[in-house]
Amino acid sequence: MTELETVTEVEPHDLTDGFHLIIDALKLNGLDTIYTVPGIPITDLGRFAQAAGMRVISFRHEQHAGNAAAMAGFLSKKPGLCLTVSAPGFLNGLTALANATTNCFPMILMSGSSEREIIDLQQGDYEEMDQLAIAKPLCKAAFRILHAEDIGIGVARAIRAALSGRPGGVYLDLPGKLLGQTMDAEAGRKSLVEVIDPAPPQIPSAGAVARALDLLKSAKRPLIILGKGAAYAQADAEIRGLVEKSGIPYLPMSMAKGLLPDTHPQSAAAARSLVLQKSDVVMMIGARLNWLLSHGKGKAWGPPHSKQFIQIDIEPREMDSNVEIAAPVVGDIGSCVSALLEAMGDNWDAPPSDWTGEVTEKVASNVERMAPRLQNNNVPMDYHGALGALRRIIKDRPDTVLVNEGANTLDFARSIIDIYQPRKRLDVGTWGVMGIGMGFAVAAAIETGKPVLAVEGDSAFGFSGMEIETICRYNLPVCIVVFNNNGIYRGTDVNPTGGPDVAPTVFVKDARYELMMEAFGGRGVYATSPDELTRAVIEALESGKPTLVNAIIDEQAGTESGRIGNLNPQSVVAKK
Ligand code: OXT
Ligand code: ADP
Ligand code: MG
Q1: Is the Cβ atom of 104 under 6 angstroms away from ligand 2?
Q2: CA atoms of 225 and 297, how far apart (whole Å)
Q3: 506 touches ligand 1 (CB under 6 Å)
Q4: What residue's CA is closest to ligand 1, atom 4?
Q5: Nearest CA to ligand 2 atom 9
Q6: How far is the centre of ligand 3, averaged over its atoms, from the C-alpha of 412 (Å)?
Q7: 465 pocket-lining for ligand 2 (C-beta < 6 Å)
Q8: CA atoms lying within 13 Å on the CB side of residue 267
Q9: Which CATH class is domain 375-565?
């Protein structure tokens, strides 16, 4: 007998445990990256996962690990994985899980948890919390695995729940006790489940397709709206084919920019108000009629009852959620768009030219009006000067992934920076949530391998700023530009009482954000002009070195809440 065989006999080589079954189950399903913050009881799970060849990206705060997982899900169409410790770590990750669900991003939040028996008797265990109950209302599905032999099924259920139908966030509760449970290795291997076809094509009915095309044909002023569901679907060629074959102007929602290049002649992005008001038939593809589209009614949409809607969505219950949908097309976007394309045949009539001409003219005049402002080299910079510089950089490097958050920094960047490729603009999404910046940037770099440019309001950056250490630690090709206007919206508010506290929207003046980056070995640049900003960003993108550019913006340049100031409640008292 050889020495090795002796060891095999003595060591429990024929046993496996919860740790390894979870890792094997994930790997079997092609999930190879975990975004995490280590600690009791999941530290070894991360270690073993790394040892098993998985990529384990460790963050400074779970919310950002969770946001990274959510973005990984959006970009890859596989559930992004976030792994957290019990109670406080779990809660930190929960915002990201809820945000992922709201945005229809597939992710799985796996969290360690304490002893069930002690939690249920509320006897005060270490980090005691009934996590499953808390997660349930905030995600698409929530599961707990109690026995090692159920790990295969538990992981499979989580994957299928995250990906099938409308994608979303799933919670998977992993009690500490489960991780150490052992079972026969061969039985364990057999208990694993490879999820077959987790997001099967959902073919629309022929009747729904015909109804939609009849309506579209009858339109005098048709409009297509592309949403982030269309970007997620990765049916890029079909979507472009449909838009071009139809000849209909299209409006991209923020994260659908780039599905067709923003410079496309049919883009109506620069005539948004006009097309919403005047269109008579609107075809929504992977977009919801929520607040971002004024719920499909009201002043923004022109006279009451002046439009009819076609809606393509995988979620049947989305239909009629805000207004009547005259032609619902339920199915996955790839299948729906292909069916529409085929049924359109080869002789589809272009929309009336007075309509397309009116849209093109409005686009041209808005673009022309904006153009000179984008060339200014003012010091301190305004949003147009600074974003004009970044717009030119992205034009030359269209495979750069743009991450964007803030208020003015978000709203101006959305209309100024053209995007040329699908899924290259990642932002605050449905909730307008601050704090996605560094998590999304890390995931974008890891999942795509492309350079990332994160354009961040100074307030927005603060929500996830500590993750620049993560970016430096993994040496990711991320360039962060902090639009530093000394505060939230503007840096000019004053405390009306004259007391020592500054106004609630105001930060430390002239904060040196670039020095934070230097603290971790990255490159920091202080930029006061569009020219300096241009040089710094180009160098960062070309070198791939983690960089933070502190871009000094005129503190008076912004407006309250950017372009959504109308959502602020008004005080009668303040008006007096
Ligand atoms: O057609 P018209 O004439 O209307 O013109 C439109 C287009 O046609 C035209 N356009 C163009 N013209 C020329 N050329 C081109 N290429 C072009 N493209 C377009 O431009 C206009 C505008 O076009 P757009 O943008 O398409 O249209 P519009 O009308 O703006 O669209 C409406 C919306 C609703 C779809 C759009 O506005 C939108 O998507 N908005 C999203 C807004 C959003 O989500 N904002 C973030 C939340 S704000 C607030 O809540 C903040 N907080 C609170 C907070 C949050 N959010 N989260 C958490 C966890 N805690 C607290 C905070 C703390 S923001 C914030 C920080 C802010 O401070 P920062 O320092 O970070 O940022 P700064 O403000 O910079 O200081
Ligand atoms: P936006 O904010 O860009 O308008 P939303 O997040 O509001 O986009 O809407 C996305 C929509 O896309 C959701 O209603 C979701 O159900 C739908 N969706 C997501 N993936 C698919 C898909 N593969 N096929 C069809 N619909 C999808
Ligand atoms: Mg600001």
Answers
A1: yes
A2: 15
A3: no
A4: 273
A5: 287
A6: 12
A7: no
A8: 22
A9: alpha beta
Tokens of 74: 């959006």
Q: pLDDT per residue over 417-470, tens digit each?
A: 999 999 999 999 999 999 999 999 999 999 999 999 999 999 999 999 999 999
Residue whose pair of structure tokens reads 């506290």 in the numeric block? 501
C-alpha span between 152 and 193 (Å, rounded): 5
> How would you classify residue 237: left for phi > 0, otherwise alpha for psi between -120 and 50, otherwise beta?
alpha
Q: Is the CB of 239 under 6 A from ligand 2?
A: no
- Phi, psi of 312, rounded to the nearest 5 degrees: -105, 120
Pocket lining: 284 vs ligand 2, CB cutoff 6 Å = no
Share of the chain above pLDDT 70, in %: 97
Domain with CATH 3.40.50.970 in the chain: 16-191, 375-565
For residue 1, name the pLDDT band (cuts at 50, 70, 90).
Answer: very low
Q: pLDDT tens-digit profile of 52-89?
A: 999 999 999 999 999 999 999 999 999 999 999 999 99
Query: Which atom of ligand 1 lies closest to the CA of 291?
Result: 34
Q: How far is the CA of 9 from the centre of ligand 1 (A)?
A: 65
pLDDT digits (tens, 9 = 90+) for 476-512: 999 999 999 999 999 999 999 999 999 999 999 999 9
| Arch. (CATH architecture) of 16-191 | 3-Layer(aba) Sandwich (3.40)
Q: Is the peptide bond before 351 cis (omega within 30 degrees of 0)?
A: no
Order of strands, edge to edge, in the sheet holding 250-252? 250-252, 222-226, 281-285, 308-313, 327-330
Class level of CATH domain 206-361: alpha beta
103 CA → ligand 2 middle, Å: 8
Q: What b-and-e string marks burial along 317-343, b requiring 16 or more CB atoms within 10 Å of the CB?
A: ebeeebbebbbbbbbbbbbbbbbbbee
* CB contact at 8 A, 173 and 157: no
In this structure, the dihedral spanned by the alpha carbons of residues 127, 81, 160 and 182, taken in order and rounded to 10 degrees, is: -60
Which tens digits make up the pLDDT trace of 350-365?
A: 999 999 999 999 999 9
**221, 362 contact by CB (below 8 A):** no
With bands split at pLDDT 50, 70 and 90, how would you rate the model's confidence at 12? low
- In this prediction the pTM is 0.97
pLDDT at 10 over 70: no
